[in-house]
Amino acid sequence: MGSIQPSNDIPEVDVLLVGAGFGSYTVLNRLRKLGLNCKVYEKGSKSGGIWYWNCYPGARVDSATPIYQIFDKELWEDFTFTERYPGQKELRRYFDYVDKKWNLSKDVVFDKHVDGATFDTSRNQWLVECSDDTQVYCRWFIPCLGFASKKYTPPVEGLGNFKGEIYHTAVWPQHDVNVRGKRVAQIGTGASGIQVLQTIGPKVKHLTVFQRTPNLCLPMNQQKLNPEEEEKKKKNGWYQQEIEKTRNTFAGFTYTFVDKNTFDDTPEERERFYQELIDDGGFRFWLNGYKDIFTNQEANNEAYKFWRKTVLKRIPDPKKQALLAPEVPPHPFGTKRPCLEQNVYEVFSLPHVDIIDINENPIVEVTSKGLRTKEGEIEADILILATGFDSVTGSLAQLNIRGLDGKTIAEHWKDGTRTSFGIAMANFPNMLFLYGPQAPTGFSNGPTSAHYQSEWVERTLKDLMAKGVTYFEARKEAEDQWCKRLSDVWDASLFPLAKSWYQGANIPGRKVEPLNWAGGFPEYLELLDKSCENNYQDWIVA
Ligand code: N01
């Protein structure tokens, strides 16, 4: 039992979920209906998961309505989003609505930080420890931490010397930050960085963006939604149909690749098709195009060339053109997650916005007044770190969860991440995690992952309980096979060619390895279901 000293007064629940976002709320509702006594522990003060923490200016989702919500008719019938891509404030309002409708708060404890857990083999239960020194026993331990709950700050020399304001996008203050008329320096141009800079750019006195890799952004094509039209679409079955489509697409969206390779079409047909995808907006150009985009470099180059042509038209300055849409692609298109933009190339083109390519002109140090680069000092009132996360594995590995052998998850993953079907680990019985490593996670629409993984958890726990099973552990051989399959799929694609967080390459010194299942949703769900055939062939049940 490690250092934990259990006592008889420790409360006990059937299920302990960690995190109050899409994953845990989806599964909580299902497991409560099975009659299980569930609790959710959330370190934030409100519901929303990532939408609680992600409150930087311009934070907005990049999955379109109606699939960015819990796939439950009872919920979507009575809540209508006002925009095709809702913003953070509206998403928080949505979570408050879900909370009220399902009376979730009675089972959620906010401001409660789980530190670690140890499995008690005498009871087949986890003993979970919190930072307020409380403990709880649970039969099923289900962390739903998301892939972005551990922020990453690069080790820039002198960060502590800065006398102005510093904000990291991942832990932006919950109150408004006044940027109007200020000189702002921003490091990072991922999805968070792009959203911040396109929002604050027009308001600030001066903005200097430190870019390492250009983000190959796609147009969002945001639209206001008409409530009456949305009501009609709910009644005529469109919402339900859109939601059902997510089961059979690569990334859990409502569309997937067309059954055609890039060079099956003539150049004119290709041009028309690419234009259609771009015009519709969102991720269509990324995930609804030719099926060889991620397997054939030549095909991928065609997509990049078209993308570049559309973007160059929006950037008058040739120097900025070369930085934002270079002739040679920085990586195969879409092998780093593109981001949806609304006006970012116009904002980059404003005269008071400078882009510094840190590959040419590296940051030497942060000073009391700003940042010193190889070429000189840039003064700033505000420094924004939009430098992302220790993505996918960081959320789980930062907790002191110890397996049967006493080793933490981080120790288990010292030589490489290992999971079984991206939902469990050998040595960690009765622990199932949602939206975690080696699942479709980084490639998927969040609520789609939450829905189908929760469905599997509900079905599995219901069956195990009916059979009187109290112990459920991933078989080591199944874990080996899953890791191999995951790598085989990854290595057959162009994804390894980008220094992306998909494979942990965003953090210097980290092992570069596939952290997300790139074989698509339908195959993932089929394999997960198969693992339970023949009386749970890939699991130890007792
Ligand atoms: O983080 P990121 P994010 N010096 O890792 C740069 C989801 N999300 O928070 O590209 C200088 O993508 C780094 O440079 P490079 C979404 O899935 C969704 O933006 O590694 N720069 C990069 O530009 C997203 O993909 C939404 O060369 C450094 C940036 O910092 C994921 O979360 C909104 C550096 C980090 O970008 C992560 O997004 C927000 C250094 N030492 C997030 N180190 C929506 O739904 C890092 N960088 C819209």
UniProtKB/TrEMBL annotation:
UniProtKB keywords: FAD, Flavoprotein, Monooxygenase, NADP, Oxidoreductase
Required cofactor names: FAD
Domain FAD/NAD(P)-binding as annotated: residue spans: 14-237
GO molecular function, one term: monooxygenase activity
InterPro entries (alphabetical): FAD-binding_Monooxygenases, FAD/NAD-bd_sf, FAD/NAD-binding_dom
Family: Belongs to the FAD-binding monooxygenase family.
Entries under PANTHER family matching the protein: L-ORNITHINE N(5)-MONOOXYGENASE-RELATED
UniProt protein name: FAD/NAD(P)-binding domain-containing protein
Organism name: Amorphotheca resinae ATCC 22711
Organism taxonomic ancestry: Eukaryota, Fungi, Dikarya, Ascomycota, Pezizomycotina
